[in-house]
């Protein structure tokens, strides 16, 4: 007699509405991945793909769409559009397909260069130390509030050229705007705060753009305005949208990379000691943090025609959800994937996506995480994490802590 497989958890079970998922999404995603190469989620009208090789291949497929306006009306991506996007406005680059996506990405890469990021290395270290200065002398504090949340916001604000006197407002607009951006569980008050924050941020950015056009500066806003690619330039609204994307996508993911990674590290004092004994492993530790509990658990694609993906026939407009959190735990690729190991060799992960949509901010996120981790371990020789009930954010597709209490 053959043993029957237990159906995997699907639908709302793979969302923060499920306490079991909030506590440990990766075990549930293991079940989905091992059920088959493409598992149909009837409630949400999507296929879920979770094996590393399949997810990587689909991420690298340049023919697939992401614009939810092109999805089948009964599909998950169409429902996403109705809930989260404003059809009266052009989507951000994140949800555009070629040629619009390629034009905008080509322009932003002219401004957001590895050189401009590397030039920030010294200042990023100063920002990390300045934040730690504010909590020095306290026996315990919330690491998310004190460090992980403000750290990337201040870095990108300084790159943009935001006046230091405006940075408190800038951080509030960013925090409030992002808080409800992808959260279907956000209440009316939270959504209203987000709406006001986005409007105030856009007003601020339009004023800054006008000032940079009249008097250019050595900052990222000016670089975006002056970026040119084969005769193409950004218009003002595209710069506003791009800055909002850099803030929203970049800050949240770097915050959660640090928060999740430090939680996993501090839960295993032996791993902390390994890094203290051999700081050269910090770069490798960041990659293990990205693999083990990265900030993004799902991303999506839309079939453009009748085709086969992950061994399954798909129709035009079909939603395909790529389970990054399942792929990064695929035992076909990693031995003992549920073990957090900063010495792990040959780490491969899909935390930054892939293909033409590989995360533009990956070099900055890695640099911030490496400097942040090294600074925290240096400044706090006895940094540890007491027993506590972890509270996770309720944003589907993302993984991040509301707070993380540490003792020093």
- Counted beta strands: 8
Rg of Cα set: 21 Å
Residues in helices, as a percent range: 40-55%
Largest beta-sheet details? 4 strands, mixed
What is the residue-averaged pLDDT? 90
CATH T-level topology: Cytochrome p450
State the secondary-structure class.
alpha+beta
> Helical stretch count?
17
> What is the overall silhouette?
globular
Topology as a string of helices (H) and strands (E):
HHEEHHHHHEHHHHHHHHEEEEHHE
Q: What's the CATH C level?
A: Mainly Alpha
- For the record, the count of structural domains works out to 1
What's the quaternary structure here? single chain
Runs with pLDDT <50, length 5+? none
State the fourth-level CATH superfamily: Cytochrome P450
Query: What is the level-2 CATH architecture name?
Result: Orthogonal Bundle
Kindly report the spatial arrangement of strands forming the biggest sheet. Answer: 1-2-7-4
Q: What is the straight-line distance between the termini?
A: 57 Å
Please report which band the strand proportion falls in: under 5%, 5-15%, 15-25%, 25-35%, 35-45% or over 45%. Answer: 5-15%
């Amino acid at each position: 007699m053959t043993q029957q497989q237990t159906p995997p958890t699907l639908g709302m079970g793979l969302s923060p509405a499920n306490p079991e998922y909030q506590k440990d999404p990766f075990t549930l995603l293991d079940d989905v991945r091992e059920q088959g190469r493409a598992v149909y989620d009837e409630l949400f009208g999507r296929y879920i793909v979770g094996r590393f090789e399949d997810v990587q291949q689909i991420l690298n497929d340049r023919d697939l769409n992401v614009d939810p306006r092109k999805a089948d009306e009964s599909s998950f991506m169409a429902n996403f559009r109705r809930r989260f996007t404003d059809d009266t406005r052009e989507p951000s680059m994140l949800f555009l397909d070629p040629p619009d996506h390629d034009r905008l990405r080509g322009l932003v890469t002219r401004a957001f260069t590895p050189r401009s990021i590397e030039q920030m290395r010294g200042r990023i270290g100063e920002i990390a130390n300045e934040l730690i200065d504010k909590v020095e002398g306290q026996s315990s504090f919330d690491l998310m509030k004190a460090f992980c949340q403000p750290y990337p916001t201040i870095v990108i604000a300084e790159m943009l050229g935001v006046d230091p006197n405006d940075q408190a407002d800038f951080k509030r607009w960013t925090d409030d705007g992002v808080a409800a951006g992808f959260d279907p569980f956000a209440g009316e008050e939270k959504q209203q705060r987000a709406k006001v924050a986005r409007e105030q941020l856009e007003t601020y950015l339009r004023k800054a753009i006008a000032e940079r056009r009249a008097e250019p500066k050595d900052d990222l806003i000016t670089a975006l305005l002056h970026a040119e690619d084969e005769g193409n330039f950004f218009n003002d609204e595209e710069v506003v949208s791009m800055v909002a994307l850099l803030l929203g996508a970049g800050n949240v993911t770097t915050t959660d990379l640090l928060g999740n990674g430090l939680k996993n590290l501090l839960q295993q004092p032996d791993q902390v000691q390994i890094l203290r004994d051999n700081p050269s492993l910090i770069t490798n530790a960041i990659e293990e943090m990205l693999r083990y509990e990265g900030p993004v658990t799902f991303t999506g694609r839309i079939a453009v025609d009748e085709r086969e993906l992950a061994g399954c026939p798909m129709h035009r407009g079909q939603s395909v959800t790529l389970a990054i959190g399942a792929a990064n735990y695929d035992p076909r690729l990693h031995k003992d994937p549920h073990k957090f190991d900063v010495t792990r060799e040959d780490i491969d992960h899909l935390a930054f996506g892939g293909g033409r949509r590989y995360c533009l901010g990956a070099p900055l996120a890695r640099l911030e995480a490496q400097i942040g981790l090294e600074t925290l371990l240096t400044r706090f020789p006895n940094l540890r994490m007491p027993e506590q009930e972890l509270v996770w954010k309720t944003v589907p597709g993302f993984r991040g802590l509301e707070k993380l209490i540490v003792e020093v």
